[in-house]
Amino acid sequence: MLSHATRILVIVGGLNWGLIGLGTLLGGKWNVINMLIGAWPMLEAVVYVFVGLAAVKMVWPR
C-alpha cells in the first residue's frame, strides 16, 4: 500500500515539476498543486513535503 502511494506521489510531483518548467519556458504559471490548493498554503506545503518524502523513500536502499 505504501509503495503504491509513494509511486503516485512521485508521479504527481514529477508531472507538476514538468508543468512548472514548461510554464516558465512558455510564459505561464502551470503549478497544478498551487492551482488546486493554493488557497491553503500550509496544505500545499504538506503536499510538497509528502512528495519529497516519497522520492526519498524510492531512492533510499532497503
Description:
The protein is an all-alpha fold and 62 residues long. It has one domain (10-59). The protein contains three helices and no strands. Helix 1 (2-26) packs across helix 3 (41-59). The longest helix has 25 residues, at 2-26. The mean pLDDT is 93.
Write the SSE topology.
Blueprint: H1 2-26, H2 32-37, H3 41-59
Helix pairs in contact: 1-3
Range of helix content: over 70%
Main sheet characteristics: none
Q: How far apart lie the N and C ends?
A: 16 Å
In DSSP terms (H or I, runs of 4 or more residues), the helix count works out at 3
Counting helices, strands and paired strands, the structural category is mainly alpha
| Secondary-structure element pattern, one letter each | HHH
Rg for CA atoms: 13 Å
Strand proportion: under 5%
pLDDT < 50 stretches? none
Q: What is the number of strand segments?
A: 0
Name the average pLDDT: 93
Count of spatially separate domains: 1
Shape, per Cα inertia axes: globular
Structure summarized in a few sentences:
The chain has one domain. It starts with a helix and ends with a helix. The protein contains three helices and no strands.
Name its key features.
globular; mainly alpha; 62 residues
